[in-house]
Amino acid sequence: MPSIHSLYSYPVKSCAGVAHSKIALTEAGLEYDRHWVIVDAQGVFMTQRQYPRMVLIHPEPVAGGLWLRASGQPDCYVPLPAADAPAVPVAIFSANTLGADQGDEAARWLSAFLGLSCRLLHLHPQAHRPASPKHVTHWLAQHPDWPLAFSPPGQHQFAFADGFPFLVVNLNSLRELNGQLAARDFAPVDVSRFRPNIVLDGLEAYDEDHLAGFRTGGLGFAFVKPCAWCPIPNVDPKTGGTAQEPGRTLAQHRQFPQGVLFGVNAIVSLPQETAWLAVGDSIEPEYDFDEIS
After folding, report:
1. Residues with Cβ < 8 Å from 259, sequence gap 6 or more?
2. Could you write out the three-class secondary structure of 2-26?
């Protein structure tokens, strides 16, 4: 039976992820997922696309704050900002949102490790950033008989992820990609290259192309948009080094009008404000067999 293979959150956008056997979630995503973001001296958000060394920073959220850890640096504890901290405007691509500055100590620590002036922001309580109403509206219109109710478009608030609260990846799609890499004498890659939140097992490779979503334990996940990939999967999460693979091989097999596709962006239907997911939870896939176009 298909099930949840693994779960990951990324407390600081584009830094190392954290694996979970069980984790709480809300409509905004998995607990702590992308609640912090690093910005440069101009206030522009930073990612591994330009700064692959970010993947070597290991954040650990704890009650009241965040630990930052990296090789060659002393651990840095960052307390949460005050509730009335000033709001700092920050744009994640074309979406404007708000952060709260985490202070000079975190800024010095990050600047020293990354080799440029930067600062750490935490999600501000006044931030308002919904998942794309266009994509949510389209999905709801295409699936009027879905058995679980979703919040209306504009109400799926989330933090500093690229575009949606959840990224779901199919493990057998990765296995197929790794087979294609092996055929060209390249090493296999771990699923962490694709920075998923939820990894599913027990589906056929690229079944996600034909899924409306899935249900598990009273929760429903709607696959509202295929994920178009950037160079981040070419960053080795163990070393921070970059190469042409797996991106080049993926592009040869998964090129669509929307881009090079791998994984799907999702929103969730919750029966209450907070719920839990666990590794091993069975899932019920909902197929619609619409082709990607």
Report:
1. 228, 229
2. CEEEEEEECCECCCCCEEECEEEEE
pLDDT score at 110: 98
Q: Where are the domains of the chain?
A: 3-7+129-287, 36-123
Measured in whole angstroms, how far is the alpha carbon of residue 260 from the centre of its chain?
17
CB-based contact 83:126 (threshold 8 Å) = no
Residue type, 29: G
Number of neighbours of residue 256 by Cβ within 10 angstroms: 13
The domain 3-7+129-287 having CATH identifier 2.40.33: the answer here is yes
CA angle 251, 290, 170 (to 5 degrees): 50
Do β-strands 166-170 and 198-201 pair in parallel, antiparallel, or remain unpaired?
parallel
Tokens of 92: 């994640």
| pLDDT lower than 70: segments of the chain | 289-293
pLDDT tens, position by position, 93-126: 988 999 999 999 999 999 999 999 999 999 999 9
Task: Write out the DSSP string of the chain.
Answer: --EEEEEEE-SBTTS--EEESEEEEETTEETTTT-EEEEETTS-B--TTT-GGGGG-EEEEETTEEEEE-TTS--EEEEPPPTTPPPEEEEETTEEEEEEE--HHHHHHHHHHHTS-EEEEEE-TT---BS-HHHHHHHHHH-TT-SS--PPTT--B--SSSSSSEEEEEHHHHHHHHHHHHHTT-----GGGG--SEEEESSPTTGGGGEEEEEETTEEEEEEEEEEP-SGGGB-TTT--B-STTHHHHHHH-EETTEEEEEEEEEEE-SSS-EEEETT-B-EEEE--PPP-
pTM (2 d.p.):
0.96
